[in-house]
Design goal:
By secondary structure, the chain is an alpha/beta fold. It has helices at about 10-15, 45, 55-65, 80-90, 105-120, 145, 150-155, 185-200, 225-240, 290-300, 315-330, 330-350, 385-395, 425-445; strands spanning about 20-25, 30, 35-40, 100, 130-135, 165-170, 205-210, 215, 220, 240-245, 270, 285-290, 355-360, 365-370, 400, 400-405, 415-420. Helices cover about 35% and strands about 15% of the residues.
Length: about 450
């Protein structure tokens, strides 16, 4: 079906019709109830940063559950909440030391948007209500996060009820606009954002939200060198807050704890989730700069956002265990070091497959884009369901990948995301490379 989003099977939200039944997982492997074993090369949508069934994380969860599952935030603080806060503040770098813990990526983004609005209201600029986002970005499924997302298939049924947002073009080094050299793309894209701020009137703009490395909507697209720095400068100049959505690319996935560290840039607000709790528990966070915290604390006594499960004790205990292991085992250094090797090995493995147009990424976050024609970079007809076919071929080979569609213009485009655990042994990474090549050849005929 044209425009069908291969990463999203609605059946999986209902009865799971047609899907294998998950049974158990250990390390890089998942086993289904029929006894089949899969290498989990994408961690679902880039979630399982320590693989499955890590004994230390499981033990920490069990121990916390034995004590108490949750101390409600208006009644209690807790050791896990305080330790996770301290760990995340230290990992995120100076000044991003205020945070709201939530239950996932959409809530993290939703909180980030609300913190931005609250900040401007508190500073006496309540007309700063408008968000600017980028085309081909995904920020989540709650109404606010969806409103700033440009993912055609996921928005379509809700159009008309979404808060109005502005969109500037995507920033895609593989597909720069006609006449723009890759080296000029960062400046070009920054100029587009500035023009939109000017068009709206800076006094109406609350924040610019973007994924430093675009995940599900773009097929792992790092921004050009210098782009984030230019955006930072623009935001400062116009009083617009910079929100980095690092739900997929952050928490170490790209080899630095925050993806934007790579660019030497500190956002005003940063949404993280997925790898924060490693998939063991639903967990996310909106981190915000001390400068914002001072305003929110002084005027409103703190951020006016949160939920029943904000700072959930068990979830924080799991997050602490995951983050402790990442730090103790030097896994970010490992991801930074071995990511380039993994990507290069994959690129070499698929180099002779005509349908592979690009292999790209950062750290253990890798995208493979398919094209009908390498020279023109023309995508396949969406009706062919190319990435979905590759995903199915991979499953049949015992490999789990994350196929996505519509990455070119919302409808056309096929790509795969690979996001192995940070602690995946080298021989598993090698196997992922070989099996991915085999799956692509099986699905697309090798040419
Ligand atoms: C960049 C980004 N932001 C937000 C979200 C929403 O997160 P969740 O699905 O945990 O609500 C996602 C999910 O894939 C994402 O990739």
């Amino acid at each position: 079906m044209a425009g069908r989003d291969p990463s999203w099977n609605p059946a999986s939200d209902a009865a799971g019709a047609g899907l294998p039944r998950v049974a158990w997982g250990r390390g890089c492997h998942v086993h289904d109830a029929a006894g089949r074993r899969y290498i989990d090369a994408s961690g679902g949508p880039a979630v399982f940063c320590l693989g499955h069934g890590h004994p230390e994380v499981n033990a920490a969860i069990a121990a916390q559950l034995d004590r108490i599952a949750h101390g409600y935030r208006y009644t209690f603080t807790s050791d896990p909440l305080e330790e996770l806060t301290a760990r995340v503040a230290a990992a995120a770098g100076p000044d991003l030391d205020s945070m709201v813990f939530v239950s996932g990526g959409s809530e993290a983004v939703e909180s980030a948007l609300k913190i931005a609005l609250q900040y401007h209201s508190a500073r006496g600029e309540p007309n700063r209500r408008r968000f600017i986002a980028r085309r081909r970005s995904w920020h989540g499924n709650t109404l606010g996060a969806l409103a700033v997302s440009d993912f055609t298939a996921r928005r379509a049924p809700f159009e008309g009820a979404l808060v109005e947002a502005s969109f500037v073009p995507s920033v895609n080094l593989y597909r720069p606009p006609a006449g723009v050299a890759p080296a000029d793309l960062g400046a070009h894209a920054a100029a587009e954002l500035e023009a939109e701020i000017e068009r709206l009137g800076a006094e109406r703009v609350a924040a610019f939200i973007f994924e430093p490395v675009v995940g599900a909507a773009g097929g792992v697209l790092p921004a050009p060198e210098g782009y984030a720095r230019r955006i930072r400068d623009l935001c400062d100049r116009y009083g617009v807050l910079m929100i980095a959505d690092e739900v997929m690319c952050g928490a170490g996935r790209c080899g630095t704890w925050r993806a934007l560290e790579h660019d030497g840039v500190v956002p005003d607000i940063c949404a993280v989730a997925k790898g924060l709790g490693g998939g063991y528990v639903p967990l996310g966070a909106a981190l915000y700069h001390r400068r914002l915290a001072e305003v929110l604390d002084a005027v409103d006594g703190g951020p006016l956002t949160g939920h029943t499960f904000t700072g959930h004790t068990l979830a924080c205990a799991a997050g602490v265990a995951v983050q402790r292991i990442i730090e103790r085992d030097h896994l970010l250094e490992r991801v930074a070091r071995d990511g380039a090797t993994f990507r290069a090995a994959l690129a070499a493995e698929v180099a002779d497959i005509e349908a592979v147009g690009d292999v790209r990424g950062r750290g253990f976050f890798v995208g493979v884009e398919f094209v009908r024609d390498r020279a023109s970079r023309e995508p396949f007809d969406p009706a062919l369901g190319v990435s979905g076919r590759v995903g199915s071929a991979a499953n049949a080979l015992g490999l789990l990948l994350y196929p996505i569609g519509g990455n070119v213009d919302g409808t056309r485009g096929d790509a795969l995301i690979l996001a192995p655990p940070y602690n995946a042994p080298p021989e598993i990474l090698d196997e992922i490379v070989v099996l991915t090549g085999r799956a692509i050849r099986t699905a697309l005929g090798g040419a």
